[in-house]
Amino acid sequence: MAEIAKQHWSAKRYARTAHFVPALGAPVLELLAPRPGERILDLGCGDGVLTEKIVAAGATVVAVDAGTDMVAAARARDLDARVMDGQKLTFEAEFDAVFSNAALHWMRDQEAVLAGVHRALKPAGRFVAEMGGHNNTAAILVALTAVLGRRGLDARRINPWYFPSADAYRRKLEEARFAVEEIAIVPRPTILPTCIEAWLDTFAEDFFGALPPPERRSARAEVAELLRPILMDETGTWIADYVRLRFHATRTD
Ligand SMILES: C[S@@+](CC[C@H](N)C(=O)[O-])C[C@H]1O[C@@H](n2cnc3c(N)ncnc32)[C@H](O)[C@@H]1O
Questions:
Q1: For the chain, how long is the longest CA-to-CA vector?
Q2: pLDDT at 1
Q3: Residue 69, class by beta-carbon neighbours within 10 Å (0-12 exposed, 13-18 middle, 19+ buried)?
Q4: Ligand 1: which residues within 6 Å by Cβ?
């Protein structure tokens, strides 16, 4: 059973530096098409911004996340949010749908996640999600690899993320007894509301946490310098090289 990524999720920082994540979740929410009276699980709900939208559609939603601060923020929105590792879901045939945005790629043990989602769904229930896909944040990963490599660390061993291609994830879903209705890679260059350093603090702690504390700041500055000519446009805006994988699958038995 895989561990949970080391990233510390602060709800306050997430709202400041990563509000674009739920804001750009509209297409996957549309794919979910929640209906009044449905019972839906939001897997890796974060601070509950998208969960609230599913509730607003009339569904009853249980939201789970491994980050205690995120769950507290979701509860503050009056949501039924629970601390739970997505690799150890405990539900049995109770949901019409499982939804997830920007969370699955943080979970290393995909077989455990998919088995838990399958178990949580009612027969023929749907699994609709978006996650990082093949080539997601590729420039950022290369820069992290180079800077950690200068310090004798292999970023591939530390990397907490799993960014599969559509074919690779289709296979995983089918092996886990899902029928894939649709699955696609969606390139999505993403304007960051802050600088790349703030993005790295919000999402790349697993990498920098592997360094001795006095080296972390200078390593982060080196990553930013490598990325500036690639990801910053001529107006000074940082545009991250996001690529999403979006899919709709249904439970088969
Ligand atoms: C980028 S946030 C996305 C949050 C939310 N779905 C959204 O769209 O704003 C990723 C979330 O995945 C959660 N997460 C990471 N690993 C997890 C795990 N093993 N089990 C459950 N949640 C996890 C984090 O705590 C974080 O809240």
A1: 55
A2: 60
A3: middle
A4: 4-5, 9, 21-22, 25, 44-46, 49-50, 65-67, 70, 85-87, 101-103, 106-107
Using a pLDDT cut of 70, give the percent of the chain over it: 100
| Residue 170 falls inside a structural domain | yes
Mutate to test the pocket of ligand 1, among 9, 10, 85, 104 (most ligand atoms within 8 A of CB): 9
226 occurs within a structural domain: no
| Residue from 100, 106, 113 whose mutation best tests the ligand 1 pocket (most atoms within 8 A of CB) | 106
Model-wide pTM > 0.85: yes
Domain housing 32 = 11-137+160-189+242-251
> Within 10 A of 28 (CB to CB), how many other CB atoms are there?
22
Count Cβ atoms below 10 Å from residue 150 Cβ, excluding itself: 10
How many domains are contained in the chain?
1
Does any domain span residue 35?
Answer: yes
When pLDDT is averaged across residues 143-160 and rounded to a whole number, the result is 97
Which CATH number is 76's domain given? 3.40.50.150
Q: Is residue 18 part of a domain?
A: yes
